[in-house]
Amino acid sequence: MTTTELIEAYKAEYIRANGKECTVVKVGGWFKVNGDKGVGHTKFNQMLETLKSRPTVTRRQEMVNGVLTWIEAHQHVVKSLLSPHMDVIEDRDTPNCCSVASETYWSM
Question: What is the pLDDT of residues 19-62, one digit of tens each?
């Protein structure tokens, strides 16, 4: 994941988990969130994973295959592994064997 993609992923997860926007700036090798003291790449990844583990506070709109779509709190958007790699909306608790984003699903 590029730095830009990482920052955008963090912002999206922050909105999902907190219901408000945040500012993320990369200064040198440090990521500054909402003007706080900077953290390194490893710590920033940990912060992103923590946000991903939190429940969604509101539904949100995301682009799904080029169409702005409402995503409910219990859902997320994944990319299908099978060509043409379309976006798919599925429940967050979908088991790997049932998720089109999982190699397990396609190998069964």
Answer: 778 999 999 999 999 988 899 999 999 999 999 999 887 788 99
pLDDT of res. 45: 95
H-assigned helices in the chain: 3-18, 41-53, 103-107
What residues contact 47, with CB distance under 8 A and at least 6 apart? 10, 33, 39
Contact predicate 19/58, CB 8 Å: yes
Q: Are residues 46 and 31 part of one domain?
A: yes
Q: At what angle do helices 41-53 and 3-18 cross, to 10 degrees?
A: 30
**What global pTM score does this model have?**
0.55
Asked if 64 and 82 touch (Cβ cutoff 8 Å), the reply is no
- Per DSSP, the residues of 27-55 read ETTEEEETTPPPB-HHHHHHHHHHHHHSP
Contact residues for 49 (Cβ-Cβ < 8 A; gap 6+): none
Q: Say whether both 29 and 66 belong to one domain.
A: no
